[in-house]
Amino acid sequence: MERVDEGRAPGTSRSGPDARSAGAPRRTVTLAPDPSSPAHARDLLRQVLAGAGRLECLDAAELACTELVTNAVLHAHTTIDVTVEVGDVVRVEVRDRNPTLPSRRHYDPHATTGRGLALVAALTDEHGVTDAGTAGKTMWFTVGVDHDHRTDDELTSVWDAAEWDADLPTRRQAPAPGPVRTREVQLLGLPSGLWLAARQHHDALLRELALYAAWHDELAVDVVATDRARSTLSGAVVAAVERRRRTQAAEPPDGTTQGPWENAPVDLTLDIPLEAGGDFAAMQDTLDAAEHLARTGHLLARPGLAEVVAVRDWACEQVVAQLAGVQPAAWPGADQERFTREVHPRQGDDLEAFDLLTVRCSSACVAAGDDSNRIVAVSEPLARLVGCAPEELVGRRIVVLVPPRFREAHVAGFTRHLSTGEVHVLGVPVTVPVLRADGSEVLCRLLIERSTATGGRSMYVASIEPVDEVAGASDRRAV
């Protein structure tokens, strides 16, 4: 529903949160927390700017408004007021009824998510948050000042320094009135590191899916219910990891960013509202739809690794089942044969765009993998080291070379790398055990380098040398 304010905005300042031109008309539309809302907001923008003869501002305003409305759809879960005002500048306000303020995420340049608010900052003249309180918040921006003189470096600096500080402190949302019937749900042995990495993957999928759904009415998904369920689970895991961190005396090993508390399994006990089972079923359906779109190349986000999908399915199914009275069943772990074979690459992947022949013909122990965690080429020496023929390894997942006790940590780290661009082990030699076909292990020096194939696809080349051979080579050089 749209309401038109025939009055005039009272603002007297040309900058800051009250940057309104005296006498400028305002139009406001109230939208539901629905994937179609960004499209409706763009319709309002086009109508207002066309009527005011300011279509030169449309591109930047549309992109920035789409980001803010998408954020509100995904995370506020309330109705959204979008206001457009045209005066000396174009001012857009997006108000929701959720008091939680936006937070900046520090993702790597290769990440496919985490840049929405930085994009708004780079596109607009000014931006900010006002009216923050228990009743919600208003995010705003202005466009319309000529910035043709800004260099690429200046735009990049705006992007990198983007902050969204509120004029008022954050306040907690008042609890919903009336009693809520809940049931205790236990998630036993939940792999905390794997789930936290999966959460970052879910962030990327949901944002891409919301933007895709805004242009495709035929996609029936419930991103609001999905975000409610995801937030419930992820909030509990984060709290459990933080409690463990405070009580653990051990520090992370040198050169790592994770402590033992971040990878160990946790037993969670949650009080879930009885009517929330539909949210967790919606989470499965929505993320399944997003995974399909990612595999078919319709989203920028990559498909999830098999374990990431499995832990999400297990958690959602456990909640739904236990709300129905079924007894809890523990996470079965990542040491399953199916995980060494389940690969979901994106359609259109061009393996021939990468030089696999050099890997296959190498006289050293070398393997190449793609961004779906799949082995695409193996040298003969490496195949002999692990007791397989090269064709027995090609097409399988890299976890086939990882001892079972380390697989969840490996998948968590690789998922974080794909989702956020973290590169802690790339280009850094590490010593790790490598699993052989007979179940034995050999301690190796591992060095992974990333290459970019045609089309920008990431490929990974691993050099794997047994530690005793590395030590022997060093001794010979010393002599």
Describe the structure in your own words.
There is one protein chain. 37% of the residues lie in helices and 20% in strands. It is of the alpha+beta class and 479 residues long. The chain has helices at 37-52, 58-76, 116-123, 152-160, 192-213, 223-247, 277-295, 306-323, 357-360, 380-386, 390-393, 407-420, 467-478; strands spanning 2-5, 26-31, 80-86, 90-96, 126-133, 136-143, 182-191, 265-273, 366-370, 375-378, 430-435, 441-452, 458-466. Helix 7 (277-295) runs antiparallel to helix 8 (306-323). A hairpin with a 4-residue loop joins strand 9 (366-370) and strand 10. The chain is globular. A six-stranded antiparallel β-sheet has the order 1-2-3-4-6-5, with helices on one face. It contains 13 helices and 13 strands.
In short:
This protein has 13 helices and 13 strands. The chain is α+β, with helices and mostly antiparallel strands and 479 residues long. Strand 3 (80-86) and strand 4 (90-96) form a beta hairpin.
Any key phrases for this structure?
479 residues, 13 helices, five-stranded antiparallel beta sheet, 13 strands, disordered C terminus, alpha+beta, disordered N terminus, six-stranded antiparallel beta sheet
